Amino acid sequence: MKKLFFLTFLLTLLLPISKIHAESVPEDVYDYLSGKPFVIANSTIENLSFTDNNNTTGTQMYNHYTISFENPIDISGYSSYSVGGIYGAGVAIIFNYDNGMSNTTVAGGSGGYTTLNLKGVKKITLARTGTEGSPGFLYDLKVFVKKTPTPVLNPTLDVTIEKEKVGVGQEFTAGITLKNVKDIYAEDFEIKYDNQHLQYLGFEEVAGYKVYNTPTDLNGTLRFIVASKGEDYGINKDTVILKLKFKAKAIGTAVVDSTKARIADTEQEYDLEKENCLEDSIIIEATDVNKSGEFTLVDLAIDARYFKYLAADVDPVKYNAQQAGDEYVNDDDLLYIVDQILSNPNYLPNS
Fold it and tell me: Any signal peptide, and if so, which residues (predicted)?
């Protein structure tokens, strides 16, 4: 009799609590909890052993652990891996759902997927079951939510620069266009630009669309959250939703790239495929007189030397004598050169 009791106790301690009707994990869901810490109730102690995707790291359930969601989530299903304690002690997983109005409790299991379909889950609590003997161990918990669907229209976020070439110091605009969509009213996207060659000057809103965040330039990366201003501005065709303003600051080729984007209609949101977040480039040339890349007093001296010359006759391979006005080198050119010198931060008067 003692041997039978001992074997029963040993099996209870070592074998996972089995789960009935375990299913395969659907392809349209993902583990929402991965890497998110649980916290012991009324404390700041965090525990990642449940959500580290490792069935060999776990915690004995002496305490209650909770995880709360600022925005309620819809849970499609869950899986867990647990081992029972002495005298049938186990693990309970309590889902607080329906925006806090309801609870459902399930037992820890052996790793299989089980469908839940709970709407508006606000909190998950992990607790022991049974009050006799040592509590069970929980090694893994996965909670699955639906993946963001990709619409069949193949939406695209495009960048279009209005010019092919500009000179150093010149400004230009890049239009951000949303294409291949239906009834889209909100966009959240990221833009990266070549800050070695370009200076970001700001953005210009397009009628009917407004930027509702405060974009911060993070070393050449910008995030914009844009929304339509009424049903008349729902996007159903190729539409420019924003214009970005830049200034060329160095010779070379510069790229403005839309790196990622999410869009939404009035029912759901969609993540754009990476290959549908497009870019455009622009060539930046030297436009100063001696083609050094910036305006200095030397440029003024060259055009002063060739004053009243036909600009085309002033060695066009070596010089850009034509700067303003008509085809002759005159006061218009010299005035323009001086304006550019005064705008050049690298040009400082003799100290």
Answer: 1-22
Q: Read off the amino acid at residue 96.
A: N
Claim to verify: residue 93 and residue 168 sit in the same structural domain: no
- Burial code (b: 16+ CB inside 10 Å, e: under 16) for 99-127 equals eeeeeeeebbbeebbbebebebbbebbbb
How many structural domains is the chain composed of?
3
Low-confidence stretches of the chain (pLDDT < 70) are 1-22, 150-152, 351
Run of H or E including 104: strand 102-107
Which structural domain range is residue 179 located in? Answer: 156-285
User: What gap in Å lies between CA 239 and CA 259, rounded to an integer?
Assistant: 18
Distance, in Å, from the CA atom of 335 to the CA atom of 189, rounded to the nearest integer, reads 42
Cα separations in angstroms, 286 against 77, 289, 302, 320, 330: 61, 8, 16, 9, 21
pTM: 0.52
Instruction: Estimate to the nearest angstrom the gap between the alpha carbon of 243 and the chain centroid.
Output: 20
Q: Is the dihedral of CA 120, 126, 132, 136 positive or negative?
A: positive
Shared domain for 255 and 316, answered yes or no, is no
| Long-range contacts at 200-207 (CB < 8 A, ≥ 24 apart) | 200/244, 200/245, 200/246, 201/171, 201/245, 201/246, 201/247, 202/244, 202/245, 203/242, 203/243, 203/244, 203/245, 204/173, 204/242, 204/243, 204/244, 204/245, 205/242, 205/243, 206/240, 206/241, 206/242, 206/243
Q: Give the DSSP letter of residue 331.
A: H
**Per-chain mean pLDDT for the chain:** 89
Helical axes 297-305 vs 331-343, angle rounded to 10°: 170
Residue type, position 122, single letter = K
Q: How is residue 121 written in tokens?
A: 């889950």
Residue 118 belongs to some domain of the structure: yes
